[in-house]
């Protein structure tokens, strides 16, 4: 079984389209931001 951990502190600019998918969690740390007019989607999905 593969287990990876990521902690996100990215800042997305206007008009960015970002999708994160994970099996159990998507931790967003202080400083994370998605600017107005950007699209950010985080989805918890089971393993395929």
Describe this structure in words.
With 48 residues, the chain is mainly β. The protein has one domain (11-44). It is built from no helices and four strands. It has strands spanning 11-12, 17-22, 33-34, 39-44. The chain has a two-stranded parallel sheet. Strands 2-4 form a two-stranded parallel ribbon. It is flat and about 30 Å long. The model has no long low-confidence stretch (mean pLDDT 76).
Features:
single chain, mainly beta, flat, two-stranded parallel ribbon, 4 strands, 48 residues
Give me the number of helical elements: 0
Cα-to-Cα separation, first versus last residue: 12 Å
Largest sheet: 2 strands, parallel
Q: What fraction of residues sit in β-strands?
A: 25-35%
Which strand order spans the largest sheet, edge to edge or round the barrel?
1-3
């Amino acid at each position: 079984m593969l287990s990876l951990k990521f902690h996100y502190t990215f800042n997305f600019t206007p008009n960015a389209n970002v999708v994160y998918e994970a099996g159990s969690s998507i931790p967003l740390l202080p400083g994370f931001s998605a600017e107005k007019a950007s699209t950010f989607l985080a989805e918890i999905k089971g393993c395929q």
